Structure formats: C-alpha cells, structure tokens
Amino acid sequence: MERISAINASTSSSYGVIFLFLACGALIGLSRGRALVLFTSVQAMEKAYQALRDVLPYPLLLQGTASRRELLERFSGDRESVLLAVASFWEGVDIPGESLSLVIIDKLPFEVPSDPVIMARINRIRTSGGNPFFDFQVPRAVLGLRQGVGRLMRCRSDRGVMAVLDVRLFTKGYGRRFLRSLPPSPLSRDLEEVGNFFREEDERHQDD
C-alpha cells in the first residue's frame, strides 16, 4: 500500500518556489533519500538542484549530467540517492524495491499551450464547439500524472509515498479528476503522517 501526499505548494510566486524547495527537502529528509523528483520544466529542475544540493545529505543526481542509463544505474545502486528529472523520466523508469520509496511531482503536468502541435489540437476542438481545457488538456495532464506516480509502484510488494506539490488538486474543481485517477491509497496533507509512514516502514523492514 502506498500513500499519496498532497502538500500545498504553488510555483506561481517567489514565495511558492521557496515553499516548493522546502517541501521537497522535508519529504526527502523523511524518506532518507530514495526519491525521484519529477519536474514539469528544466528551469524548475535546475533551480531545485541549486537549492537542495548543499542542504541534503544525500547524493543528488541531475538529468542532463549523464546518460539516462547511467543515471538510473547510479540511482538504483545507491539506496540514499535522489534523482531530479523531467520529460522522459516521467515514464519508463523501472526501479523496484527500496531504492525508490518517494516520488515527488512539482506541478500537475499540463502541456505548454504555445506548442504548435498542442495549439493546433486546441484550435480544432474549439472550432468544433468543444472545450479544449476539459476535453483535451485535463485528460492529457491526468494521463501524465498517472505515468509519473506509476514510477513508484513497479511490483505488487512496492510501498512508498507519492507527493504532488500542487494545491490545485484541492482548490480547482478539476482537481478531483486527478485524484480519482490515482491508485487507491490513503491521502494525507500532513508531513507528520508521512514521517510516521516511513518510520513504520523502517520498523517493518527491521522485523523482516
């Protein structure tokens, strides 16, 4: 069983960015590394790396500093490492076991509407009388979120925390669509509960 943690954070302001970094640091501290942090932009990933690299006592791996294969091998081999990534790492990452116990997603993965392909789809839906946001953009983002959190559960015995740092899950009506799409799990907005989960997991492994 896994736990979904939805921590209130918004990156729409400098305060929100700072809160995002603090939330990431706090969650990674509770999991003692073992985290995959997925970002919706390279800029956000690089800023988080700069903010966290000198404060976390765990090896930080950054997409773009080595090949995908090398990063995943290092991440899988070091049980305390933290991997920061975007794009292709939202899917196809298979790290079963304790090396991955926490997946953090900074924002709901809406695609950039200025992309020519996305804009063309939006215009076609609008021309045909549809609602591009609810008919196209939300379903695509829901699929992206499911792919992201799916990195945590690679086999039936995997357990961990999926943390979505986007307050829109609760402040926007469409947030319920995202929540309904996620695996059935306890839902928490309390870091103390997340800490209790990891402590219980540590005790369970000690008893095994």
List keywords for this structure.
Rossmann fold; seven-stranded parallel sheet; alpha/beta; single chain; 47% helix; 8 helices; globular
Give a short summary of the structure.
This protein is of the alpha/beta class and 208 residues long. It has one domain: P-loop containing nucleotide triphosphate hydrolases (Rossmann fold), CATH 3.40.50.
Protein topology:
Blueprint: E1 3-6, H1 14-31, E2 35-38, H2 42-52, E3 60-62, H3 68-77, E4 82-85, E5 102-105, H4 116-127, H5 132-149, E6 161-164, H6 168-171, H7 175-181, E7 187-188, H8 191-207
Parallel strand pairs: 1-6, 1-7, 2-4, 2-5, 3-4, 5-6
Helix pairs in contact: 1-8, 4-5
Descriptive overview:
- With 208 residues, the chain is of the alpha/beta class.
- Helix content is 47%, strand content 12%.
- The chain has 8 helices and 7 strands.
- It has a 7-stranded parallel β-sheet with strand order 3-4-2-5-6-1-7, sandwiched between helices.
- Helix 4 crosses helix 5.
Strand order of the largest sheet: 3-4-2-5-6-1-7
CATH topology name, in short, is Rossmann fold
The percentage helix is 40-55%
State the low-pLDDT regions, or none: 8-13
Compute the number of helices.
8
Amino- and carboxy-terminal Cα gap:
17 Å
Global mean pLDDT: 85
Q: What's the story with the biggest beta sheet?
A: 7 strands, parallel
Number of strands: 7
CATH structural class = Alpha Beta
From the coordinates shown, what is the CATH architecture?
3-Layer(aba) Sandwich
For this structure, what is the CATH homologous superfamily?
P-loop containing nucleotide triphosphate hydrolases
Radius of gyration: 17 Å
In percent terms, what proportion of residues is strand?
5-15%
Helix/strand class: alpha/beta
Give the overall shape, derived from the CA principal axes.
globular
Q: Which H/E pattern describes the elements?
A: EHEHEHEEHHEHHEH
Number of domains: 1
